[in-house]
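Hi all, long-time lurker, first post. I run a small reading group and we've been trying to get comfortable going from sequence to structure in the token notation. Rather than ask abstract questions, I figured I'd post a concrete chain and ask someone more experienced to write out its structure so we can walk through it together at our next meeting. Sequence below, copied exactly:
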Amino acid sequence: MKEDKIISIEDRIPKLKKQRRQKANRRLVFYLSLFFLLIGFIIYLQSPLSHIKNIKVSGNKLVEETEVIGLSGLDGETNIWKVKTKDLATKMTNNPFIKSAQITRHFPSTISIDIEEFQVIGYIKKGETFQPLLDNGEQISFENRYMQGDAPLLINFTDEEILSSISEQLKDLPENILRLISEIYWTPEAENEYKVQLFMNDGFLVKGSIRNLSEKMEVYPSIVAQLDPKEKGIIHLNIGAYFESFSK
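-- Answer (accepted) --
Happy to help. Here is the structure in token form:
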């Protein structure tokens, strides 16, 4: 019985040869595929196929898309694989509105530029123009084309120290409350140089102090919710909080 199960070496040799031939063929196909893939990739890198065809810009509100693309220096002649993403991201922050940028390649020919901008917390009246005030405290000496009505106008702030104080308060305000403010006037008095008046978009006038403005203004929505919307007036936010009707 054991002799019947013994396979002669002559019977096994053809099978071994076939298996080796199949392995050799698979190995050859693999190396040929890899070779032609590398050749194709080299041709792609050296051809216009690897040039940038699309530049997608996102996250920008203040800086126009054309400005972002112009600042990047990228165009249809730029090889996508020669773009140094980290260096380009740093270069984008040369624009004072841009806080940071993230650059991403998308095969075969698209670059994405995702922008994070500084928040505009006010527009400072300078003569006949209004200049943006950013949440990093920087004043941008550009004209009205950057105004979007998303932050209050700051009027009569002629003292840089006072302006710095109000900017610190405004950047701590929740965005939904900041958007409720139309104009802020600096109205200093002999006993208190920090007094301000805030004209609100809903028709109320707020009188308070710069020193604790962000803290006091957080309760503004709850105060207004308790008032008759048809009766406008002054909301005093000093030591306490009380309402004074315009009709009185």
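A couple of things your group might point at:
The chain has three domains: 2-46, 50-117, 120-245.
The first helix runs from residue 2 to 5.
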